[in-house]
Amino acid sequence: MDLSQYLEIFIDETKEHLQTLNDQVLILEAEPENIDTVNEIFRAAHSLKGMAGTMGFKRMQRLTHDMENVFSEIRNGKLNVNADMVDIVFKCLDAIEGYLTCIIETADEGTEDNEELIGLLNDALNDTSEENKQESETKQQEKAEKADEKSDENTEGDKRKYLSVPIADFEKNAMSEAKAKGLNVYAATVYIQESCLLKAARAFLVFKGVEGKGEVIKSVPNAQDIEDERFELDFSMFIVSESPIDEIKNIIESVSEIEEAVIEEFDIPEEVHETVQKVDESKKSDEPKKEVVEKKEEKKAPVKTNNKPVVNRSVRVDIDKLDDLMNLVSELIIAKNGLVSVTGVATTQDQQFNEQIEYLERVTTNLHESVMKTRMVPIESVVNRFPRMIRDLSKKLNKEMELIMTGEDTELDRTVIDEIGDPLMHMLRNAADHGLESTIDRLKIGKPQVGTIRLDAYQDGNNVTIEVSDDGAGIDVEKIKQKAIDKGAITEEQAEYMSEKEAVDLLFQPAFSTAEKISDVSGRGVGLDVVKNKIEGLGGDVEVASKLGEGTTFIVRLPLTLAIIQALMVDVCGEKYALPLNSIVTIEEILPEDIKYVHTKEVINLRGTVIPLVRLNEVLDVEPLEVEDDELNDEGLVVVIVKKGDKQAGLVIDKLLGQQEIVIKPLGKFIHVPRLISGATILGNGEVALIIDSNTLV
Amino acid sequence: MDTNISSVNTKQYIILRFDSEQYGIDISYIDNIVRLQPITRVPHTQSYFLGIINLRGEIIPVMSMRRKFELEDVDNTNLTRILIIKAEGNAKIGILVDEVREVVTLAEEDIEKLTADDTRAYLTGVGKHNDTLISLLNISGLISDIDNE
User: What is the interface pTM, i.e. ipTM, of the complex?
Assistant: First the structure.
């Protein structure tokens, strides 16, 4: 049997447990007396150990085992939580994560032994060696009690399911032969914990363990069924071995997630007929008892669910399959648009036909939304590692700070989620390193001693906004300008006329860092430009708002979905283009005499705001239609006002064609596309229209 | 029909026409041949790209073989076709040609290979068919050329 099929589950679960551990240890650090947290940590550490052991990752098992020991001591009140210990535990978690990364990449845990950490853990344990002895005594007592319980259970009899197993002649012969050779014949029924996910894997390990000591003559269900996980929570086996019964029992029960093993020496039935009878009898007598057991289990079940959070019923789906589904939905929307445009020109206006078309439109829109939702993941999966990071930074930078996060349940497309982690992390580091003042400085200027970093996420129409803010010193515009001048990025003259906003935008230039010290926390100024590129690559944008002395806020806007958007269709000299609706502010009609000139550039004054004009036919290189030139000038221009952040621009177009849901398609590999064009879309009549990325024009 | 079909080393070629010259393209590159349809112009792109078309929901860039070979543009006619070429990695590209004539089978001995230092880099060889000469286009060379630009 191959364990690799479980590797994926193992990786997912390990990640989950690590996250739990990180979260809980953070809580523990704040509330060292919180016994619930300790229990939670212990459980997670224990599960980790068990899983690592099952998968044969010995080093990882060893580390988690020692960690579990420490928490076992804490749980029993033998050891007190202190800052040093929390540090050690965090280091262990990092080490485990190291193992995990290694496993994800190579399916092997690597060779790092982490002896040092294990040493530290054991030191922590040895502090309480005295108490340890007492502890082990109590443990033994507990064990004894447990054993008693077990024997109690045993006497109930109904756990010995092997009694109801029919034994064939040849199997009986084999057992007799073994007995004649002086070997022991045992019958065992192994119970696996209800919560166990890898039943077949556990069973496999039981078999492997037992086969090291003897031979499994028979198992019910048979080996193949067990391997395919076609069994409930228990299986029975008959073993021939020379080892004593306790040894076998220990081997079986040492496999993690095994509830218990009921094992005893097996009396070989004398005659076949008798066996059958016996079987019948035991079956009869077992049946009512089985019911009792089942009832018991039913009673147990609700208690268990009370302890655990209710798990959503879910299916794991490969992201590629969702992509396929999304593509099909896109095709459907194109087909629907085709139908709509046909009905538009159809001469016979059949009422019923139109109703059906409208119905179809509703369904496709809903379908699109549903498929989109299946691809949505809460940003929690990205941001939940940040509290830990801020804690580490706080220690490293020797600044007191706290992270407040809101809107972790805000959802984003999976592809966006995968990419957004690094930029966010970078901004948080920036806030911690450059944003917040040192604790002493904060006290001097009368700010609260503990600096606050906030991460707020919320949905805003078709966008998701994530704000990373700090209550630190804010951005010193003059300092940035000076720096830029020093680096030769701008001249002094330019600096003088530069607005605050433009100066702050200098931060996003490559190789720009205003921190006087270079620290290993937030790099060497090769950061914010990368952040900006990445976010723009995802179709979003980032801007900064800062008040000197009060703090800085980075505002990241991301599109909810990448593939299908609402767009305004426009006509530019007879060619059709799509403008994404989310960047459009208003549509205005401008008279030619309203156009003013600033530095020979055309601008308009719209309700007090001066907005530059962009003639789309010029940027797009379209030949103007000859006839209408005069008319246009007389009638005024249609101008679409678009925004990027708080900057605006007016795009001059010829005609508005209406709003439409469009599917973004790439233009293919070979053709070079200017940045101005973000993709193409297929219109209802099969025509292709280009999508204009208005961000490049503002 | 061709008599060489049974021969082992034969390849099928699609014969196209530019002006009066005949060119052949290895049929294994051809995904589709479609009639001329409206081509959406793409601004600021390579000069020999006419634009993009919609082929059953897929956007495909279309280049003009004439412009690539620095021939004069001619008016499109009833015979103008777009050849859809399948490049590596399933990427597709359309080529506008004056006319698609027929499919012929050429045996290896009917093809005269061109040497590498030949100036006509987009040709792999010249085929003889029924006493006419066919210039065989080096499609993969042509495509990797676009790729590298």
Answer: 0.84
